[in-house]
Amino acid sequence: MSCLAALPAGVPKAQACRALDVPRHWCYPDRRQRQRATKPSGRGRGLSESEQRRIFDALHSYRFLDAAPREVYATLLSEGSLLGSVSTMYRLLRGRKQTRERRNQRPAQQHVKPQLEATGPDQVYTWDITKLPTITRSFYLCLYVILDLFSRYTVGWMVSRKENAGLACHLFREVLSRRAI
Fold first, then answer.
1. Taking the model in full, what pTM does it have?
2. What angle do CA 27, 29, 33 make, to 5 degrees?
3. Are the CB atoms for 66 and 60 separated by under 8 Å?
């Protein structure tokens, strides 16, 4: 870098970089650092403690207990009161880790997962309907499949143009009569 800085006036920087086998952008000062240095720091433009307190008082009031900051902003603005922008409200709430869902939520429920168990064939059947694409665009066929859970044997299947509860019942009746169940 010192060689590049001490180049004579007539030598092009691109040729010097090629001779030293370094990228050409190393010859030029970093513009980003210069831009960062000239930007104002932004200090002195923040909200005072009393302004922040007024915003938090409004957000935490009983009146806006279930409202999002955007709704609070719109309501206060229609009443002629401007405490801060929506992004300011969100920034202040984020600073106190209060940006969760503000409405009361039902606690997570623990549901029992259904467990099907088969110790032999023809005890438990599972079924599904799958869409099969055809050559014609946006035209599908429906594949109805019934499987034995124990052996994973395909007990019955049917292909149809439409998905219909009546067709599924017909397939089940046919499979159950064929299997003498």
1. 0.41
2. 150
3. no
